[in-house]
From TrEMBL:
It comes from Calidifontibacillus erzurumensis. This is ABC transporter substrate-binding protein. Residues 1-20 form the signal peptide. Belongs to the bacterial solute-binding protein SsuA/TauA family. It is found in: Periplasm. Pfam families: NMT1_2. PANTHER family: ALIPHATIC SULFONATES-BINDING PROTEIN-RELATED, TAURINE-BINDING PERIPLASMIC PROTEIN. Keywords: Signal. The lineage of its organism: Bacteria, Bacillati, Bacillota, Bacilli, Bacillales. The keyword Coiled coil does not apply. GO terms for cellular component: periplasmic space.
Length: 330
């Protein structure tokens, strides 16, 4: 065989083998929408940074959609395959008569992630001190506000009668409103709460997560049709999340902070570590992806107390634990 023919044959073989290798190593692309960017979602960023999704053959494209309504719109219109958002949104969608319901299949956080921040240092804080105060709350109908009201009522405070409740400020502008002088108390997510404390703009006096108990605060969900048509992909996704949950449970706040720091470039590493330590100490990060029935019922109790529950939905209707259980049993 002439050299030229041999060379052509070798090149052809290399191309064919390369194509075959590419075919074998090709990743399944997943469009993931997160409701906001938050240290609260640390295990998700760990799964990305530690390569747990890649190990499962998944290429995850993460988009921050900034709001539950926008996140669900992205999911329902095909702009996202999977959404990380509060479970209450799946109930709202179901109540609107969705023919392709949104199913919760893996839980990421299991407590509220907000903290009560006072403008002044408070010695020996008690919830009674909120009576007569101006309370800068969260958006009506959203999980933070519903949990906030639930906790206040648990302590004998009707936020609509006993406080001057402000909840017409857009989510993204709440910290700025408080920093500008609005409110005696504010309900804030991290890292803003810790940053305000460090800068002397406010002081953390209580945790809504500790007070409210376990709830499916943020879960991964997808349309029922997508789950049915992509069972293997959902299993791989859940397996990667479970790996990250185990890793976060076993590692120190310092180590976790280093891994997720690229997602919070404008936040000091020391603040990230403080926030993670606070969330770990109160058990905010779910240690496995199973959303259990008690948590689901607690969520609906909180929604009902806030007057935002359109209808009580059976656990089996909007929650799928089969995938999580299968992954955990491997």
């Amino acid at each position: 065989m002439k050299f030229r023919q041999l060379l052509i044959l070798m090149i052809s073989l290399i191309v064919v083998m390369g194509l075959a290798a590419c075919s074998q190593n090709s990743s399944q692309k997943i469009k993931l929408a997160e409701v906001t960017r938050s240290i609260f979602y640390a295990p998700q960023y760990v799964a990305l940074e530690k390569g747990f999704f890649a190990e499962e053959g998944l290429e995850v494209e993460l988009t921050t959609t900034w709001g539950g309504d926008k996140t669900m719109t992205a999911l329902l219109t095909g702009g996202a395959d999977i959404a990380l958002v509060g479970s209450e949104t799946s109930i709202y969608v179901h109540a609107q008569g969705a023919t392709d319901p949104v199913i919760n299949f893996a839980q990421l956080t299991q407590t509220d992630g907000t903290f009560l921040v006072a403008r002044e240092k408070v010695e020996n804080f008690s919830w009674e001190q909120l009576k007569g105060s101006t309370f800068l709350g969260q958006r009506k109908g959203g999980m933070p506000q519903m949990v906030g009201e639930f906790v206040l009522k648990k302590h004998g405070i009707d936020p609509h009668k006993d406080t001057n409740l402000i909840q017409n400020v857009d989510f993204a502008n709440i910290p700025n409103a408080f920093a500008s002088g609005t409110g005696d108390y504010v309900q804030l997510f991290e890292p803003t709460a810790s940053i305000f404390e460090k800068e002397g703009k406010g002081y953390i006096v209580a945790s809504f997560g500790t007070e409210s108990g376990h709830v499916p605060y943020t879960t991964f969900m997808a349309k029922k049709s997508f789950i049915n048509e992509n069972q293997e992909v959902i299993e791989k996704f859940t397996r990667a999340i479970y790996k990250a949950q185990i890793w976060v449970e076993e590692q120190s706040a310092s180590e976790i902070a280093k891994v997720i720091a690229p997602y919070f470039e404008d936040t000091d590493l020391s603040i990230i570590e403080t926030v993670i330590d606070r969330y770990k100490s109160q058990g905010s990060f779910a240690t496995n992806p199973i959303l259990d029935e008690e948590e689901w019922n607690n969520l609906q109790d909180i929604m009902d107390e806030a007057g935002e529950l359109p209808a009580r939905i059976d656990y089996q209707t909007l929650v799928n634990t089969q995938i999580a259980k299968k992954v955990m049993s491997e």
